[in-house]
Design goal:
Blueprint (H helix, E strand, L loop, with lengths): L4 E5 L3 E5 L2 E5 L1 H11 L3 E9 L2 H13 L6 E4 L5 E8 L2 E6 L19 E5 L6 H13 L4 E5 L9 H10 L2 E5 H11 L5 H7 L5 E5 L5 E5 L4 E4 L12 H14 L4 H16 L10
Parallel strand pairs: 1-4, 1-8, 2-6, 4-5, 8-9, 9-10, 10-11
Antiparallel strand pairs: 2-3, 6-7, 11-12, 12-13
């Protein structure tokens, strides 16, 4: 599948399991999986000057991600998230303060074909301002907004900012209704397209039931979920995003892009953590 250059903005952190500590973060997963697919991937994030930050840098370097835009914060720690489970389902406690809340971003952007970002990275005013500035600087034809609603950080300003600038919006079925409620619009695809003249695709993931991809024309495609024995669902949505972005930007059909995304997510559901195997 053809590849190009990607810019990813957002959180890099450590997921703290009951018996393990894993390099993670929605944006980090997207960056690592795009790099694994052959994309030249630059990651804009911020790490603490601590051992966990060093571990993340080493992991990203091994994954082939460009670290030239990764910042170091001497005052804030590398982010951590405590993960707990109830069967295959998981819940999070996202600790703060964290270095990725204070991303500054570069003054100029490297050449890139796609710009990937999520909602969580905008929870702090500092990273939110950097994200807005970089989105407005970017001339990427594909800007992918991956919604990750994590109360209490469900901010109308962040959701509206991302929706208005995205050409691809990806969110879960539950988030589809919640984002519409927060932004005061109908929970219908047409309302999302009306709110964003730039939006070309709306992707709604449905867990084991698969996913829907709605085009601006109103045409809708769907795919069934992966048939796998789930070990850990952490990161599966992020990997779905990377698969969808890489495929759409690579020029395949929308149905093929859905399949690529579904298969990518299925591959990580059978492992712990959302990173691809090291190359």
């Amino acid at each position: 599948m053809p590849s190009g250059s990607a810019l990813v903005f957002g959180e890099a952190l450590i997921d703290v399991y009951p018996d393990n500590r894993v390099v993670a973060g929605a944006a980090l997963h997207v960056a690592a999986h795009l790099a694994a697919r052959g994309w030249r991937t630059s990651f804009v994030t911020r790490l603490g000057a601590d051992p966990e930050g060093d571990r993340i840098r080493t992991t990203l370097e091994r994954q082939g991600v460009d670290l030239s835009l990764v910042e170091t914060d001497t005052g804030l720690p590398t982010g951590e998230v405590t993960v707990t489970f109830d069967g295959p389902e998981h819940s999070f406690v996202i600790h703060r303060p964290a270095a990725w809340d204070a991303i500054e971003g570069p003054e100029e952007l490297p050449a890139h074909d796609v710009f990937c970002f999520g909602s969580l990275a905008g929870r702090d005013v500092r990273s939110r301002a950097a994200l807005r500035r970089l989105l407005d600087l970017s001339d990427a034809p594909l800007k992918a907004f991956d919604v990750n609603l994590r109360p209490p950080d469900v901010l109308p300003e962040v959701l509206g900012m991302g929706l208005r600038r995205a050409t691809l919006l990806k969110l879960s079925g539950e988030e589809f209704g919640e984002v519409a409620r927060v932004l005061g619009m109908a929970a219908e695809p047409a309302a999302y397209f009306d709110a964003s003249p730039a939006l070309r695709w709306l992707c709604i993931t449905l867990g084991a039931d698969g996913a829907r991809l709605v085009r601006r024309s109103g045409e809708e495609l769907s795919i069934e979920g992966p048939e796998v024995e789930v070990v850990d669902s952490v990161g599966a949505g992020d990997v779905f995003t990377a698969g969808l972005v890489g495929a759409l930007a690579g020029g395949v059909t929308d149905q093929e892009a859905l399949k690529s995304a579904r298969d990518a997510a299925g591959a990580v559901l059978v492992q712990q953590g959302g990173l691809p195997p090291p190359p």
